[in-house]
Amino acid sequence: MEEARAFLKEGVLRHLSMLEEESVLLATRQKEALQQQTRVEELRSKLEKLRAQRDQLRAKVKTTVSLQQLTSVVDQENVEPQEESREESLQLFQLKARLTQVKDLLRAHHLIGGYDVVETRRGKGVCFSLATAFEGRYLETYNLEVDLARTIRICRHNVPPFIPLEKLAQQNLQEDIKAFLVTLSQHLNAFAGRQEQVRLVKELLQGSVLVMETNSLYSIVVLMCTVPGQKETEVLLTLEYGDPTQYLPTRVTFESEDKTLLESPQWKESQSLLQQTPVHTALLAWKKERRIC
Question: Which residues form a coiled coil (predicted)?
Fold first, then answer.
């Protein structure tokens, strides 16, 4: 009889222990779900703010275009506004004041990241557009759609495969999406800058500098140029970009049959210049100074 009671007691305790474990597990899952929901709500709130800022900027840009058109008309006429055009003068004054506001807003838009954000799939996702530029010229725009339904994840994008998107997402996407976008934008802009420099070398220095080799990320660029003299000497330049978020090389090496040329102070100075200046700018300066043919 005692054995039966002990067995029954042990079974009840085991059952209570199982219930307690299930209760703890359920509470943990509920907490995680609540945290995830909170994170989604925060992201949606940020999305609404960014969209409102975008719409405001677009309205201000339209105002700026109107100002430019009106200013152009006044300049063409080259006359002071007459008494009968006081209303136009007031409009011009207001537009000039708004132009100052637009510049301030564009500066603020750049500081918060400058990304265009569009809601997708009825609020279950968002699509970020990341524009790249180099020396004031807009280049490629990349799009990245993020799913907010459950865990935050990237569902579609056109980011080049050699950009470490998955690694960057693992580092920041769940915890700080703005930091993730900033880092990704740095990688994309640096890649676009390196690629654009090679394009400019081909375009501006055709016949003087030959692009011998590049890889897909443009982290290694090999160029061939010719140094004038009694006997023309070919020099091979290898640019290595060790930092994928920068468009300037971290290492520059020269190769030539004329070893004395490479040891000259002028070429050592040139090596330093290439690490501080875009390659097409440095090479154009060399050509102007007749360092290369």
Answer: 33-67
Q: Which residues pair with 39 in a beta bridge?
A: none
- The token duo for 175 is 């915890």
Per-domain residue ranges of the chain? 1-112, 193-288
- Sheet with 125-134, strands from edge to edge, namely 116-120, 125-134, 137-147, 153-157
Backbone angles phi, psi at 211, to 5 degrees: -80, 110
Contacts with 214 (C-beta within 8 Å, 6 or more apart), sequence order: 198, 220, 221, 222
Buried b (16+ CB within 10 A) or exposed e, 32-59: eeeebeebbeeeeeebeebeeebeebee
Instruction: Report CA dihedral (199, 205, 210, 215) to the nearest 10 degrees.
Output: -20
Six token digits for residue 178? 């703005």
Q: Point out the least confidently predicted range of 114-118, 148-152, 182-186, 275-279.
A: 114-118
Tell whether the model's pLDDT for residue 68 goes beyond 60.
no
Mean pLDDT of the chain: 76
Instruction: Give dist(CA 262, CA 272) in Å, integer.
Output: 13
pTM, to two decimals: 0.61
Q: What does the alpha-carbon distance between residue 21 and residue 11 come to, in Å, rounded to a whole number?
A: 15
Residue 154 near residue 146, CB atoms below 8 Å? yes
- Per-residue CA distances from 142 to 105, 108, 155, 163, 275 (Å): 23, 22, 14, 12, 28
| 228 vs 291: CA distance, rounded Å | 7
| Res 78: pLDDT | 46
Cα–Cα distance measured from residue 79 to residue 171, given in angstroms and rounded to the nearest whole number: 61
Residue pair 286/208 in contact (Cβ under 8 Å)? The answer is no
State the residue for tokens 């279950």.
Answer: 124
pLDDT at 216: 93
Look up residue 106 and give its two tokens.
Answer: 């564009």
| Per-residue model confidence (pLDDT) at position 201 | 93
Coil, strand or helix at 278: coil
- What six digits make up the tokens of 82? 């007459």
CB atoms inside a 10 Å sphere around CB 236: 14
